[in-house]
Fold this protein.
Amino acid sequence: MKANPQLKTFLSPYSQEVQKLVIDLRTFVTEAIPEANELIWDNYNALAIAYSKSEKLKDAFCHIAVYSKHANFGFNRGTELKKSTLELSGKGKLIRYVTVKDIKSFPIEELKKLLWEAMSISEKNNPDLIDKKDEGKSIVMSISNKKRRPN
């Protein structure tokens, strides 16, 4: 899927390393699940990108939260994932994530299994998503006027 042109603008305040990391994580998701839509929020304290087979956040199965020195790769219903050898962070009701500082340390094979499982959970919660085969779209959901970004 081709990224929304605004994504490059949203990433521009971040270092080249963080920008590349986000693009690599994005590629990981879009190649694994090309029918997923990319939902982008340029929020106050972070750039957030969710992946959903619909255009709704409630159907999202994973996300990337971009910060000044790293990105979090998370699962929107992470507490529902089966136990894995990979330790996920998070103490909330649903979301679990892994902090990623460079793509070399990103456990691709383990996360790919969790990604497919997370998508399956999303489909179970909304069976209309199961047969979606169209290529996903990159959609800007909102842009916050005020932002805290790296200098």
